[in-house]
Specification:
With 126 residues, the protein is an all-alpha fold. It has 2 domains: 2-83, no CATH class; 96-125. It is built from 5 helices and no strands. Helix 2 runs antiparallel to helix 3 (62-83). It is elongated, with a radius of gyration of 26 Å.
């Protein structure tokens, strides 16, 4: 049970940031890049147990087989962490007055705001 919980936490901590970094670097073929990156997880889930089975059932034995498997995974994770770079996107500067003018001219926004105000005041009257 501990292996399942810790594996889930580890995969969650590595999978999310890797997809986020990939989505920042591609604009035209973002879907293809993210699907290729996401296909690496099931591919590793197929290959790693087969590799570990061959290591455990060979002359290497259990302790060295687990050590080889852990060093292989750690090496790949080190390479992935060294290659990940955040891409800073240019932030458009906006003025408060410009945003407020656009909001106050938007009819659905005004109706929603009035509806929220009216429903809140009705709650206080009861």
């Amino acid at each position: 049970m501990a292996q399942g919980v810790l594996s889930g936490i580890g995969i969650g901590l590595t999978y999310g940031p890797s997809i986020a970094v990939i989505s920042q670097h591609f604009s035209k073929r973002r879907t293809l890049a993210m699907s290729l990156a996401a296909s690496g997880t099931p591919l590793g889930a197929i290959i790693h147990p087969i590799m570990l089975n061959h290591l455990l059932n060979s002359h290497i034995g259990f302790s060295k087989g687990v050590l080889v498997s852990a060093s292989f995974v750690s090496g790949l994770l080190l390479i992935a962490c060294l290659l990940m770079r955040m891409r800073t996107l240019p932030v458009a500067s906006t003025n408060y007055r410009t945003v407020s003018r656009k909001c106050f001219r938007d009819v659905p926004f005004i109706l929603m705001t009035l509806g929220c105000v009216v429903s809140d005041t009705r709650d206080f009257d009861d």
